[in-house]
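To: structure subgroup
Subject: Chain for Friday's discussion

All,

I'm putting the inputs and outputs inline so they're searchable in the archive.
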Amino acid sequence: MIIRVTLLFTTILALTMIGASSALAQNTACPTCIDDPIAMAEEAKLQAVPVSLWIGSGTYMMSDTVTITGHVANIVEGAPITIKVIDPAGSLVLVDQLDVDSNGDFESEYAASSWHYPGIYTIMAQYGSTARDNKVQFELTESEKMDPVMGCGSNMLSIEEMCIPYDIEGGKVTGTMVNSDHNSIVLDISAYDGGQLQVDFPSEVISDIFFVMVNGEESNDAEVDGQSVKVHFIAGTESIEFVGSHVIPEFGTIAALILGASLISVVVISTRSRLGLVNRF
């Protein structure tokens, strides 16, 4: 009987000590999580992951601001966290270092307009060694508030007050220029991936297209069928030039011709007026 009582007392004492130790461990790990199992689970998750990283949305437009927040489990005094952003082509477009506060938290904001290509971006956060890192991804899309390209509608080229439709994959057209010296039309593009551009040029704009240049070099991947041209390009391409036997005069040239004709008219009228006055006297 005495032995049973002694064993029962020993068991109760052991359970009491285990419960006290467990409660002490919970309170030490998360003093603010008392009686809150959800908060305790979140805190345990943060402590288990060396670097946690969040963004405000999975999709951003180019007019938006990208907000990055995160947390490190074990703070190293004076050590910053390194943020890197990789664009859809795999190029490094941002490197930044952020301070970590006394709670292990960090935060920063970046303008999405500084990243020119739509697509999937990767944000990486590294704290010290590569074993303590994390990453998230988001999609960057065209801003709905952006003005139509060069004053025409969407997917239309503006060349000397004419709007010419085109199709493009893997990039976007950012500008147009008439090069009268080369009898060519030059398109500025932002190519975030390999793709192709197809344009049907009116003969009034350019005629007898006989070759195409990509980034200043003659393209071997261009298909010319009369006034219809299809050009293949690689990621990072910046310009495509279409060369023909004749090109529409630039607005500046037309304006100069009009100005010259106007000046001649003024001279003729002035001369006639002076002659009329002389005849009267």
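Points worth raising on Friday:
Residues 259 and 271 are 18 Å apart (CA to CA).
Helices lie at 2-29, 37-48, 251-280.

D.
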